[in-house]
Structure prediction request, 876 residues.
Amino acid sequence: MTHWHSQTCTETLAALESSDSGLSNEQADYRRKQYGANAFTEAPLRPWWRLLLKQFADFMILLLLVAAIISGIVGDLVDTLVIGVLVLLNATMGMIQEYRAERAMRALKSISAPTALVLRNGQQQEIAAVDLVPGDIVLLDAGCIVPADLRLMQSIALRINEAALTGESLPVDKPDVAPVPADTPLAERHNMAYKGTFVGYGRGRGVVIATGMQTEFGRIATLLQQTEIVVTPLQRRLTVFGQRLAIIVLAICLVVFLQGWLRGESLLPMFLTALSLAVAALPEALPAVVTISLALGARKMVAQNALIRRLPAVETLGSVTYICSDKTGTLTENRMRVEAYYCDGELDKAPRQTAPWRELLRAIGVSHDARSNHAGELSGDPTEVALLAAALDAGLEYPALNAELPRADEIPFDSNRKRMTTLHEDGERGFLAITKGAPEVIISLCNHMLVNDGTVTINRELISDMADRMAADGMRVLAVAIRHWPRHPPHMSAEHVECNLTFLGLVGLLDPPRAEVLEAVRMCKQAGIVPVMITGDHPRTAQAIARRLELIDDGGEVMTGQQLAELPDADLQRRIRDVRVFARVSPEQKLKLVTLLQERGECVAMTGDGVNDAPALRKADIGVAMGITGTDVAKEAGAMILMDDNFATVVRSVREGRRIYDNLRRFIRYVLTTNSAEIWIIFLAPFAGLPIPLLPIQILWINLVTDGLPGLALAAEPAESNVMHRAPYPPGESILARGLGIKILWTGLFMAGLILAAQAWALSIDSGHWRTLVFTTLCFSQLAYVLAIRSEHQSLFALGLWSNRPLLATVVFTVGLQFALIYLPVLQPIFKTTPLPRAELAVALAIPLLVIVAVEIEKKILQIRSVAKLPRGAAR
Ligand code: ATP
Prediction:
């Protein structure tokens, strides 16, 4: 085994047949085939037949099959066959659902696959991390997850968090890249970076020495290979609920069985009836349906630029009460432009020609990490791109300037420090350190300022006032300062280098608010969601932008990170209720804000992009990472990634989350109501002196077709018109919350009562079709019910049948099937049906209409009651 850490950089590159400018594309392609993907081998998805077999592992289903076989041997073989086919079809449905859910999850995962910045053919390129090969040169930056095992070749204050590999939670310094002895333990090899760890601070580059399963992480990753099975909170509640329900259902089925036995019915058919009822009425598919709805919802959200990384997020989105958003890029366009300069006592839109102005421009022209490619396109951090663009506009020659002041060292930017310093060789003068950052920070580090007559003592008050004025216009203001060094400073540390500076000037950058955000903010307010801005920027800048976006009105206050730090928690808890803008906030304080809000019972969505945002993103109910500007670490921590970094996308996702949750509740309502109707019918019939109304086959058929198909099509139901005009529902509310339990109970009983009445009527007129009548009426009533509950508030007549076509199609299809079952002679003996004469058919069609009317009346009553409950004067 090669000890890469004990080799020099040159030896490593030679051994890997690579160079400082990276591999060529052809070399990379060849090696990709040779070494395979840079990924851990994942456990293959379960094949369909394994999923199918799993469906039969249910005790009740096995019991039903055994009973059917016995009854076949002693009696009707056709019955046994049909029961077998129905159970098989049922299992196939279950299998298809699980299959779709698993694949949808895997597909989501592959969309969020990480990328890596590499040098190939001497050019920087962003490629999918799976395509990395040994010999590739990888560039590292704060917040990026190390994509493969690397021998470091450059470290600029690199600090890497290796907790994932070594368990050590403190980040490890990588001070230099010199070789270390071969027997150095892994945790101390400071010239190496391992896959799966992340860069906490600094920059660097390294050459890939191992990929995929060959990496140190890959060796221990075998344990991680199992596909993660996520259980969402709703699923957990449903499982517990289902277990309780199962006991009740089984008890009722037992009573049904005993009742029949005592009445002298023959044992085996009675047993089959009770068992079929149990199999049909147990809502064992509910948790699987939740996964599918959420996974399909998540797939739809990808098309709207919201990538869900954790499935429960889809469910939680609907309950969000606070959206805490960054400013730059999320509320604004992140297209910065230099709008104003302040230098030598003058504020101007364009730079002037005097010495201090030239010095300022030169400083902003070289002290950034923005890049310009051959075609002249600029890339990098938008603030820095804006500075470079401004310098170019002012006529500076970029490559020439870089050659004149080549970079020798740097102290990287960090949002806690709010500044960065670059050190440049400055010919005969030695070295020039340029520090730029937040004005209040930089000004306090300066003793002098440059004016046309030379260097004078700084007037801090004057410059601070000017910075405030520029910020009040909504500009992000940066202060720029310099210090000359005769030699390279002995320590490239903040305390040593970032002091005793000479102030050069201020630069004001404008980043316009996104056009669609104002509308989204208004929508939040209507929907009972509080939008909050949390920014690292200056309070004045934050206030100006917040006003434009109607986050606050003219008197609206802004709380700064400093005030936040000074207030005791209890006071803060009270104050944050009214504050909508937090400025100059550090990432640690974001975590504190999330915690305080959650303690008040809020459900918080929080956006973030930097490496330090990760704890807050993890703590939030929905951590939202930026897709464009976000670091790998933020993306890894987020439950959701915004592919367009846009606040409006968060709001749209909340809307979608609410729709999905509403539809799940509808599905639960439908399944529980119709199942309970079946149970009531069979349970109550003997008390009304009626014979058992349904045969086992009919029960299984209804469970498979009538319950299954339309229920699934409910997921396609569009959002209700008032979906963003009501307050969010509390997260973790009971499944039967807000009257759902009562609704299920009464409609189940109502449906059963009508159908039993129909049965009694048919028997009273001596109709030989009473069983077909019950079977058909039950089927049609369930279909009518699914249409009626499409909206909790709006009437079906207002919605129109066309607004959920998949549902309409399944209803029409199921009605067609039912007609076939009763009118096609081949099917009649199988389902024990008879063609219904006109009068009976009319009853079978009238009762479903009554079901619709009853549900519509309920909607009306609830509407009147909720208006009556509103405080006087409140509008709907
Ligand atoms: P928001 O929280 O609204 O998204 P942000 O994340 O861009 O803002 P930070 O990146 O934390 O805020 O920046 C905080 C402050 O640091 C800025 O207000 C600015 O004064 C300073 N700053 C930002 N970028 C740079 C940079 N490239 N060089 C020097 N200073 C910078």
User: Anything to note?
Assistant: The pocket of adenosine-5'-triphosphate is lined by residues 326-328, 381, 383-384, 413, 415, 418-420, 436-438, 476, 478, 535-538 (CB under 6 Å). Residues 223-228, 872-876 have pLDDT under 50 and may be disordered. The first strand starts at residue 115 and ends at 120. The chain is about 50% helix and 15% strand.
